[in-house]
Amino acid sequence: MVSSTKGIPLTLLNARMSVKSFKFWSAWALPLISLMLSKFALIIPLSTTQAIRFQLLQAPPSIINFAGDLKYVVEHDMSKRNIASTEDLKEQPSDRHVWMAASVHRGEEQVILAVHRLLVRRYPDLVTIIVPRHLQLAHHIVEELQKEGLHVALRSRKQKITARGLVYMVDTLGELRHLYSLTPIALVGGSFCPGFAGHNISEAAAAGCAVLTGFHVGHFSHMINEMQRLDPL
Protein backbone atom coordinates (compact mmCIF):
# COMPACT_ATOMS: atom_id res chain seq x y z
CA MET A 1 0.00 0.00 0.00
CA VAL A 2 2.72 2.49 1.00
CA SER A 3 4.77 1.67 -2.09
CA SER A 4 1.87 2.42 -4.43
CA THR A 5 1.21 5.79 -2.77
CA LYS A 6 4.86 6.69 -3.35
CA GLY A 7 4.62 5.74 -7.02
CA ILE A 8 6.77 2.60 -6.68
CA PRO A 9 5.45 -0.13 -9.03
CA LEU A 10 4.66 -3.43 -7.34
CA THR A 11 4.93 -6.75 -9.14
CA LEU A 12 3.95 -10.31 -8.19
CA LEU A 13 6.23 -12.76 -10.01
CA ASN A 14 5.39 -16.45 -10.29
CA ALA A 15 2.29 -15.61 -8.29
CA ARG A 16 0.62 -18.57 -6.62
CA MET A 17 -2.31 -18.90 -4.21
CA SER A 18 -3.23 -22.20 -2.59
CA VAL A 19 -6.78 -23.53 -2.71
CA LYS A 20 -7.08 -22.95 1.03
CA SER A 21 -6.01 -19.29 0.76
CA PHE A 22 -8.22 -18.73 -2.27
CA LYS A 23 -11.27 -20.02 -0.42
CA PHE A 24 -10.51 -17.79 2.56
CA TRP A 25 -10.00 -14.60 0.57
CA SER A 26 -12.93 -15.18 -1.76
CA ALA A 27 -15.34 -16.07 1.03
CA TRP A 28 -14.46 -13.70 3.84
CA ALA A 29 -12.21 -10.93 2.66
CA LEU A 30 -12.89 -10.32 -1.02
CA PRO A 31 -13.10 -6.49 -0.71
CA LEU A 32 -9.75 -6.41 1.11
CA ILE A 33 -7.86 -8.71 -1.28
CA SER A 34 -9.40 -6.91 -4.25
CA LEU A 35 -8.11 -3.59 -2.91
CA MET A 36 -4.66 -5.05 -2.26
CA LEU A 37 -4.37 -6.60 -5.72
CA SER A 38 -5.44 -3.37 -7.37
CA LYS A 39 -2.26 -1.73 -6.06
CA PHE A 40 -0.05 -3.99 -8.17
CA ALA A 41 1.23 -2.84 -11.54
CA LEU A 42 1.81 -6.38 -12.79
CA ILE A 43 0.88 -9.91 -11.73
CA ILE A 44 2.56 -12.85 -13.48
CA PRO A 45 0.88 -16.08 -12.28
CA LEU A 46 2.75 -19.35 -12.59
CA SER A 47 -0.13 -21.14 -14.35
CA THR A 48 -3.42 -20.50 -16.09
CA THR A 49 -5.20 -21.92 -13.03
CA GLN A 50 -3.49 -19.34 -10.87
CA ALA A 51 -4.36 -16.58 -13.34
CA ILE A 52 -8.03 -17.51 -13.06
CA ARG A 53 -7.86 -17.43 -9.27
CA PHE A 54 -6.44 -13.92 -9.27
CA GLN A 55 -9.12 -12.81 -11.71
CA LEU A 56 -11.82 -14.27 -9.46
CA LEU A 57 -10.31 -12.29 -6.60
CA GLN A 58 -11.00 -9.21 -8.73
CA ALA A 59 -7.45 -8.36 -9.71
CA PRO A 60 -7.68 -5.99 -12.71
CA PRO A 61 -7.43 -8.12 -15.89
CA SER A 62 -5.10 -5.54 -17.44
CA ILE A 63 -2.34 -6.28 -14.92
CA ILE A 64 -2.47 -10.08 -15.21
CA ASN A 65 0.03 -11.36 -17.76
CA PHE A 66 0.65 -15.08 -18.05
CA ALA A 67 4.25 -15.92 -18.96
CA GLY A 68 4.42 -19.49 -17.71
CA ASP A 69 6.36 -20.72 -14.71
CA LEU A 70 9.44 -18.53 -14.37
CA LYS A 71 11.29 -21.41 -12.75
CA TYR A 72 11.76 -22.71 -16.29
CA VAL A 73 13.63 -19.54 -17.12
CA VAL A 74 16.95 -20.70 -15.77
CA GLU A 75 20.31 -20.28 -17.37
CA HIS A 76 21.62 -23.82 -17.55
CA ASP A 77 24.88 -22.92 -19.26
CA MET A 78 27.56 -23.26 -16.62
CA SER A 79 30.27 -20.67 -16.23
CA LYS A 80 33.84 -21.92 -16.42
CA ARG A 81 34.19 -21.36 -12.71
CA ASN A 82 31.11 -23.42 -11.91
CA ILE A 83 32.14 -26.20 -14.27
CA ALA A 84 35.48 -26.36 -12.51
CA SER A 85 33.74 -26.68 -9.15
CA THR A 86 32.41 -30.15 -10.06
CA GLU A 87 34.96 -31.17 -12.68
CA ASP A 88 36.77 -33.35 -10.13
CA LEU A 89 33.70 -35.59 -9.84
CA LYS A 90 33.06 -36.21 -13.51
CA GLU A 91 35.71 -38.87 -13.99
CA GLN A 92 35.30 -40.62 -10.65
CA PRO A 93 31.93 -42.36 -11.19
CA SER A 94 32.20 -42.57 -14.99
CA ASP A 95 32.22 -46.38 -15.11
CA ARG A 96 29.73 -46.95 -12.30
CA HIS A 97 25.98 -46.88 -11.83
CA VAL A 98 25.03 -43.50 -10.37
CA TRP A 99 21.81 -41.91 -9.14
CA MET A 100 21.17 -38.82 -7.05
CA ALA A 101 18.69 -37.82 -4.36
CA ALA A 102 18.43 -34.02 -4.29
CA SER A 103 16.79 -31.57 -1.86
CA VAL A 104 16.39 -34.32 0.73
CA HIS A 105 14.50 -33.34 3.90
CA ARG A 106 14.65 -34.87 7.38
CA GLY A 107 12.79 -38.17 7.38
CA GLU A 108 13.38 -38.81 3.70
CA GLU A 109 16.80 -40.32 4.35
CA GLN A 110 15.00 -43.56 5.25
CA VAL A 111 13.43 -43.63 1.78
CA ILE A 112 16.84 -43.05 0.18
CA LEU A 113 18.44 -45.71 2.36
CA ALA A 114 15.80 -48.29 1.39
CA VAL A 115 16.25 -47.54 -2.32
CA HIS A 116 20.04 -47.68 -2.00
CA ARG A 117 19.88 -51.09 -0.34
CA LEU A 118 17.61 -52.46 -3.07
CA LEU A 119 19.72 -51.10 -5.91
CA VAL A 120 23.09 -52.12 -4.52
CA ARG A 121 22.02 -55.76 -4.54
CA ARG A 122 21.73 -55.61 -8.31
CA TYR A 123 24.44 -53.02 -8.93
CA PRO A 124 27.28 -53.60 -6.45
CA ASP A 125 29.25 -50.70 -7.93
CA LEU A 126 26.39 -48.29 -7.17
CA VAL A 127 27.06 -44.68 -6.18
CA THR A 128 24.21 -42.86 -4.44
CA ILE A 129 24.69 -39.09 -4.33
CA ILE A 130 22.70 -37.31 -1.60
CA VAL A 131 22.21 -33.54 -1.56
CA PRO A 132 20.33 -32.41 1.58
CA ARG A 133 17.93 -29.49 1.25
CA HIS A 134 19.52 -27.88 4.29
CA LEU A 135 23.25 -28.12 4.95
CA GLN A 136 22.82 -28.76 8.67
CA LEU A 137 20.94 -31.96 7.84
CA ALA A 138 24.00 -33.57 6.25
CA HIS A 139 25.59 -34.57 9.56
CA HIS A 140 22.38 -36.25 10.74
CA ILE A 141 22.02 -38.23 7.50
CA VAL A 142 25.68 -39.30 7.59
CA GLU A 143 25.22 -40.62 11.14
CA GLU A 144 22.13 -42.58 10.12
CA LEU A 145 23.90 -44.10 7.12
CA GLN A 146 27.00 -45.02 9.10
CA LYS A 147 24.85 -46.71 11.74
CA GLU A 148 23.66 -48.95 8.91
CA GLY A 149 27.26 -49.80 8.05
CA LEU A 150 27.34 -47.88 4.77
CA HIS A 151 30.42 -46.28 3.25
CA VAL A 152 29.97 -42.50 3.14
CA ALA A 153 32.28 -40.03 1.40
CA LEU A 154 31.98 -36.30 2.13
CA ARG A 155 32.14 -33.65 -0.56
CA SER A 156 33.41 -31.03 1.89
CA ARG A 157 36.48 -33.17 2.63
CA LYS A 158 37.12 -33.87 -1.05
CA GLN A 159 36.92 -37.60 -0.37
CA LYS A 160 37.11 -39.77 -3.47
CA ILE A 161 34.43 -42.09 -4.80
CA THR A 162 36.24 -45.39 -4.35
CA ALA A 163 34.32 -47.89 -2.21
CA ARG A 164 31.74 -50.17 -3.81
CA GLY A 165 28.16 -49.45 -2.79
CA LEU A 166 29.14 -45.95 -1.70
CA VAL A 167 27.01 -43.00 -0.61
CA TYR A 168 28.44 -39.62 -1.59
CA MET A 169 27.22 -36.84 0.69
CA VAL A 170 27.24 -33.37 -0.83
CA ASP A 171 27.64 -31.27 2.32
CA THR A 172 28.50 -28.10 0.39
CA LEU A 173 26.46 -25.22 -1.00
CA GLY A 174 25.69 -24.01 -4.52
CA GLU A 175 26.52 -27.11 -6.56
CA LEU A 176 23.20 -28.89 -7.02
CA ARG A 177 22.40 -27.58 -10.50
CA HIS A 178 25.81 -28.69 -11.77
CA LEU A 179 25.68 -32.08 -10.05
CA TYR A 180 22.65 -33.05 -12.11
CA SER A 181 25.00 -33.47 -15.08
CA LEU A 182 26.70 -36.38 -13.28
CA THR A 183 23.69 -38.66 -13.05
CA PRO A 184 21.08 -40.12 -15.43
CA ILE A 185 18.50 -40.40 -12.62
CA ALA A 186 17.54 -37.73 -10.09
CA LEU A 187 15.08 -38.09 -7.26
CA VAL A 188 13.82 -34.70 -6.05
CA GLY A 189 12.93 -34.70 -2.36
CA GLY A 190 10.62 -32.63 -0.24
CA SER A 191 7.90 -34.86 -1.66
CA PHE A 192 7.82 -38.08 0.36
CA CYS A 193 6.30 -36.98 3.67
CA PRO A 194 2.90 -35.39 4.41
CA GLY A 195 3.23 -31.65 4.81
CA PHE A 196 5.89 -31.33 2.12
CA ALA A 197 5.10 -29.68 -1.21
CA GLY A 198 7.92 -30.68 -3.52
CA HIS A 199 10.76 -28.73 -5.13
CA ASN A 200 11.67 -27.45 -8.57
CA ILE A 201 12.28 -30.36 -10.97
CA SER A 202 13.06 -28.28 -14.06
CA GLU A 203 16.82 -28.12 -13.42
CA ALA A 204 17.08 -31.92 -13.23
CA ALA A 205 14.94 -32.35 -16.34
CA ALA A 206 16.94 -29.74 -18.26
CA ALA A 207 20.13 -31.63 -17.42
CA GLY A 208 18.64 -34.71 -19.09
CA CYS A 209 17.88 -36.66 -15.92
CA ALA A 210 15.00 -39.06 -15.54
CA VAL A 211 13.15 -37.37 -12.67
CA LEU A 212 11.51 -39.14 -9.74
CA THR A 213 9.41 -37.59 -6.96
CA GLY A 214 7.11 -38.62 -4.15
CA PHE A 215 3.38 -37.90 -4.07
CA HIS A 216 3.55 -34.64 -2.07
CA VAL A 217 4.34 -32.13 -4.82
CA GLY A 218 1.61 -29.55 -4.29
CA HIS A 219 3.63 -26.46 -5.21
CA PHE A 220 4.97 -28.09 -8.37
CA SER A 221 2.08 -30.31 -9.46
CA HIS A 222 1.46 -28.08 -12.51
CA MET A 223 5.09 -28.48 -13.58
CA ILE A 224 4.95 -32.26 -13.22
CA ASN A 225 1.68 -32.46 -15.15
CA GLU A 226 3.17 -30.40 -17.98
CA MET A 227 6.29 -32.58 -18.14
CA GLN A 228 4.26 -35.77 -18.11
CA ARG A 229 2.31 -34.55 -21.12
CA LEU A 230 5.53 -33.85 -22.99
CA ASP A 231 7.70 -36.71 -21.77
CA PRO A 232 6.39 -38.91 -18.92
CA LEU A 233 8.43 -38.83 -15.74
Automatic annotation (TrEMBL):
Catalytic activity: lipid IVA (E. coli) + CMP-3-deoxy-beta-D-manno-octulosonate = alpha-Kdo-(2->6)-lipid IVA (E. coli) + CMP + H(+)
Main enzyme class: transferase
Record keyword Membrane present: yes
Alphabetic keyword roster: Membrane, Transferase, Transmembrane, Transmembrane helix
Enzyme Commission number(s): 2.4.99.12
GO cellular component, one term: plasma membrane
tRNA-binding found in the keyword field: no
GO biological process: lipid A biosynthetic process
Transmembrane segment boundaries: 25-46
GO molecular function per UniProt: Kdo transferase activity
Top-level taxon of origin: Eukaryota
Residues of the 3-deoxy-D-manno-octulosonic-acid transferase N-terminal domain: 4-72
Family stated for the protein in its record: Belongs to the glycosyltransferase group 1 family. Glycosyltransferase 30 subfamily.
Name by which UniProt lists this protein: lipid IVA 3-deoxy-D-manno-octulosonic acid transferase
Organism expressing this protein natively: Linum tenue
